[in-house]
């Protein structure tokens, strides 16, 4: 979806930020709705449909995290959430699991905010097949072979979200590391190969969360998994 075709909901208890965001996105052709907190946002969404939400984290009545949790219980991929905060309130693992696709610190520039929302509105398959990923030899390599997708899920080895996957791994990979992954599911005779970025790691649980950036093999298969994902997570918080 293009910005000019989108309806956005901006949720912030500071009118100044609401008006700035409204002006920025209306200039892009968006329809923009405003709510002063999570409670007001949920009330508004009873009669309105938003394609994406830009929400502050710290607000009275109901904060941004509680708002996104309420939306997640509805079991819908939309609205997509972009979180704005002046604080590191939400760990990356929790944010991606809730379905928040980007956390941006206030003050945020117009260019950065617009780019984040456009990326969130873009169909995953289009993102994963778009040119521009620089394939370099220094990518960290991730490889795993599973008996089947079902057994991998049942044994908590892997879980897929709509934008990435959580993988059981003993590898110590720093956050924001670019990786090349190759996952083989033998029963399905399916190989998933591509590039991504490690968004969080948990050494104690031996798992990592990877955002998929591009797919070289298995695009239709992973696209189907992402669309069928019942967790509504962008990257699941556990496998």
Structure description:
The structure is a single chain. 30% of the residues lie in helices and 31% in strands. It is an alpha/beta fold and 239 residues long. The strands form two sheets. The protein has a six-stranded mixed sheet with strand order 6-9-10-11-8-7.
Q: Brief overview, please?
A:
The protein is of the alpha/beta class and 239 residues long.
Taken from the alpha-carbon principal axes, the silhouette is: elongated
Topology as H/E string? EHEHEHEHEHHEHEEEEEH
| Unreliable spans | none
CATH topology of the largest domain: Rossmann fold
Strand order of the largest sheet: 6-9-10-11-8-7
Q: Number of domains in the coordinates?
A: 2
Terminal-residue CA separation: 30 Å
**Helical stretch tally:** 8
Give the overall average pLDDT.
88
- What is the CATH C-level name of the largest domain? Alpha Beta
Q: What's the total count of β strands?
A: 11
Largest sheet: 6 strands, mixed
Features:
single chain; 239 residues; Thrombin, subunit H; Rossmann fold; 2 domains; alpha/beta
How would you summarize the topology of this molecule?
Blueprint (H helix, E strand, L loop, with lengths): L6 E5 L3 H12 L4 E5 L2 H8 L6 E5 L7 H10 L6 E6 L6 H7 L1 E6 L4 H12 L2 H6 L10 E7 L2 H6 L3 E3 L3 E5 L9 E8 L4 E13 L4 E11 L1 H10 L11
Parallel strand pairs: 1-2, 1-3, 3-4, 4-5, 6-9
Antiparallel strand pairs: 7-8, 8-11, 9-10, 10-11
